[in-house]
Amino acid sequence: MSTTEESPTAAQAGASATRAFRTSRQHRTAGEVTPERVSTVVTALLDGVHRTIRTHQVTYPEYVAAKRWLIEVGESGEWPLLLDVFVEHEVEEVSAQHQQGSKGSILGPYHLPGAVRLPSVCTLPMRADEPGTPLVLAGQVRDTTGKALPGAELDIWHADDAGYYSGFAPHVPDGNLRGVVVADDDGRFEISTIQPAPYQIPTDGPTGTLIERAGWHPWRPAHLHLIVRSPGYRPITTQLYFTGGDWLDSDVAKATKPELVLDPRPQPDGRRRAEYDFVLEPA
Ligand code: BEZ
Ligand code: FE
Q: Which ligand 1 atom is at minimum distance from the Cα of 110?
């Protein structure tokens, strides 16, 4: 992703992500956390912080720099970004320990509810001149016994060919490259879109500053996001990547899994086509 004058600032993207989280299903369904769990988990967390301070002999100037940086994370609205880059993958792994069916991955900060509903064979909303290699994602949604799930929904969203998400970049029209696709009577779907570019963490905010000052890189490999759901089944939140893609082996958000890599094949019509089936377990 290159920086252009149309690029969103980290503060704009952060504010949008914070707003999106506050109105999200994830926010609404946050569970009540018992005092016992708060005490156990926060004590362990603080133990880790204290141990790090002792082991690495953290100084007062370093403590003050950390305090200043944490204040900036809050003021710029980057808590959703920071947590989803560095923490969510671990929560997802724990949550998936007892999950059967397709592999999941992190939700990330850029899901928006209420995308347009589309039939099983569809093209995602896009600009008339949407840049990018045309891509078809086709497959079937089944349950763990192999039964097709008619009318299963595939909530899909992804970045454009420059790595920008609609709703989080002012120059991209609302709803671009987002949709809720309803599978047919046999659980099948065929979604036409364009192949997204890798995504770069905004470099002009505190998360980007941390990455730069630590000498890390700010990239996620190109990916499609999906939430696949059907009544009576546990929904799967996942991402699909592209074989041979840049950053596949060093995702800054550590959210890739070998089972989630597509291998799209060139078609005679110039498009690339990938097949992927989803398997849901009973709720
Ligand atoms: C993403 O999947 O786009 C994403 C995930 C974590 C942080 C930022 C972006
Ligand atoms: Fe993403």
A: 3
